[in-house]
Amino acid sequence: MGTVLLAALAAVVAAVVVTVLVRAGRREAQAERARLAEEARRQARRSLDAVWAMDDREFEEYVAELCRRDGCTDVKRVGGAGDLGADVTGYLPDGRKIVIQCKRYAKHRTVGSRDIQTFNGTARAEHGADVPVFVASCVFTKPARDFAARQNLCLIDINLLGFWNSGTPLTSFLDLDIGRSGTNRGLHPDHD
Question: Residue 96 pLDDT more than 60?
Answer without folding.
Answer: yes
